[in-house]
Amino acid sequence: MDPNSFFSPIAHMLPSISTAYPTTPPPSNLPFLQLYPIFMDYRFPVLFAIIYVVSVSILNPSSNNVSRIVAMQKGLKASSVKKSSDSMTTFVFLHNLVLFIFSFAAFANVTPALVKNYTTHSFTDAYCDRDGSFWDDALGYWGYLFYLSKFYEVIDTIIIILKSRRSSLLQTYHHAGAMITMWA
């Protein structure tokens, strides 16, 4: 088999893909609609993720402070673990509450549209969203907001660093990767 003939169906598409971002028009009721082309440019999440990883690498404290839960599991005395202030505890609680409420709202709005899409279309048509109905009903709006929430979730790492704890490699690359994969 000739390699050129194998890739020829894809090769003629590449120029049009690179010049046609975003390929699907945004829902008209999106917040920050004027920023949609910037946020949906592939360079935005990649650049943000790189800046995030470099910043965490620079700002990560050298100490190996652990959370109160890890300290209790290791049998350390409570007095050896730095306790968070009441204002930090309140902030962390509210931050997590906002993320929970948003995630639940996204789930509650996307799930009925997904079920409707699969019950009214063939499997292939529903999976590929050939008529754009799933995009128009929920995915365009809620998927975009969920993508933007990945940038807000960087606050998780900021909280860890403000508590003088190290952001783990998993924590750092999870958030960087989530930005890029949610864009995709």
Automatic annotation (TrEMBL):
This is 36992_t:CDS:1. It comes from Racocetra persica.
